[in-house]
Design a protein that fits this description.
Radius of gyration: 22 Å
Strand content: under 5%
Helix content: 55-70%
Distance between the termini: 74 Å
Largest sheet: none
Structural class: mainly alpha
Shape: globular
Order of helices and strands: HHHHHHHHHHHHH
Number of helices: 13
């Protein structure tokens, strides 16, 4: 599949951070961004995911996914393939289950890859594998803005708490370790927090009836975008004057009001139709 190893990915993200904060060189921005190769790596992962879906959906063939160890690129590709093929995984609940199944239960080494409880920032085993997966998901949402129940604030929240260690969801390297340390007994799940305030994470443009099918995003560099809302949010020069999150909340409330109005009008039409039918029967 020609996906680079964890060391290349780690250096790529390091370069990306350096050009995004604290200073941005406007004159050399595109050149600097290209030199990080970050978008190329994300595009490569997305391209492989689309290829897997194409083989399964159009060629009706089975696919075996396995990288050298089985817990990094394997989880990336299987997760993307399932997301593209099954609309359930594009809901908030479905995406939570997808992460639990393909990443957490599968054995992705979150503690090792993100250095939880470790001050060795130059550890060669650290790598942004899960970050790349979430970035690839965000890229898909940009091509299909009405196909996902969750918004980008949801994805940012997931990444924030990948590092925060406030919840037990991403602690440890395996289910065995988490059970041994009684993580579920001593911590709260991130999904409990998310589901308790679900409205904040709902995409107001979500239209499940329009996208209840397999998605085939264009995996091309001309469609790749830098996720500025995540990578550049701490740079004051790129902070939006109006919060996109607040705009989404207002739009969601407006959509709810419109749905209620439509439901009321539909009921009114049905009542009139029934009344008309009753009068005709009497006549």
């Amino acid at each position: 599949m020609d996906i680079a190893n964890i060391h290349v990915m780690r250096e790529s993200l390091k370069k990306l951070k350096e050009i995004c904060y604290p200073h941005v060189d406007d004159d050399r921005w595109f050149l600097n961004l290209e030199s990080t190769h970050w978008l190329e790596h994300v595009k490569g992962i997305l391209s492989c995911g689309v290829r897997i879906v194409d083989i399964m959906e159009r060629c009706r063939s089975s696919v075996v996914i396995h990288c050298s160890d089985g817990w990094d690129r394997t989880a990336q590709l299987s997760g993307l393939a399932m997301l593209l093929m099954d609309s359930y995984y594009r809901t908030i609940e479905g995406f939570e289950i997808l992460i639990e199944k393909e990443w957490i239960s599968y054995g992705h080494k979150f503690q090792q890859r993100y250095g939880h409880g470790d001050s060795k920032h130059n550890d060669e085993q650290r790598a942004p594998i899960f970050v790349q997966f979430i970035d690839a998901v965000w890229q898909i949402t940009q091509q299909f803005p009405c196909a996902f129940e969750f918004n980008d604030y949801f994805l940012i929240t997931v990444l924030d708490h990948l590092y925060s260690c406030l919840f037990g969801t991403f602690l440890g390297n395996s289910d065995q370790q988490r059970k041994k340390e009684h993580v579920s007994d001593n911590t709260v799940s991130l999904w409990t927090f998310v589901n308790s305030r679900k409205r904040e994470y709902v995409n107001p443009l979500y239209s499940p009836e329009l996208h209840d099918h397999v998605l085939f995003p264009v995996a091309s560099m001309r469609r790749m975008q830098l996720w500025t809302a995540y990578y550049m949010r701490w740079n004051p020069r790129f902070r939006p004057q109006e919060s996109e999150h607040e705009r989404n909340k207002e739009l969601f409330l407006l959509c709810e009001l419109l749905r209620e109005k439509v439901a009321g009008l539909q009921k009114e039409v049905e009542d009139k139709a029934l009344a008309t039918a009753a009068v005709q029967v009497q006549i």
